[in-house]
Hints:
This protein is α/β, with parallel strands linked by helices and 158 residues long. It has helices spanning 14-25, 55-64, 74-82, 103-113, 127-133, 145-156, and strands spanning 2-5, 33-36, 48-50, 67-70, 87-89, 118-119. It has a 6-stranded parallel beta sheet, with helices on both faces.
Amino acid sequence: MILVVLGTQDKRFERLIALVDEALKNGWIHEDVIVQAGCTKYSSAGMKIVDFVDMSEFEQWMNECRILITHGGVGTIMSALRLKKPVIACARLAKYGEHHNDHQCEIIENFFDKGLLIQVKDGETLERALQEAETFSVPEVESNNQKMLSLLADYLEI
Length: 158
């Protein structure tokens, strides 16, 4: 199963879900697709689409999925990486009204540069990314929580 996560933003992200729909129609995906769509309204006979889901069901889907396709949300990406799931990420872009700015490009680029995910840039299809996901080896990841806490403590002079 492929899990598509669009997050809980108050803005829509049809561009990514349309790429998944195109991949289904072109035969690049041959398995069930579940989409957590948030505020994105989209209709497709090829996918199970839900707006929001409780955390226990979301965790079950994350555990069961073979590939995660998602926006540039750090929490979702990190959850998948901890479970050793290949991640295909596509940033929400301000020019399409998908976000307020393009910080997700920086987030995804950072993960990509470390070899942690497969990036899909604006104008690309999912064909290459899906092929790459078949053999993508997810490396071990370490959280930077302690570094962040240390930076905050230094800033607050605790």
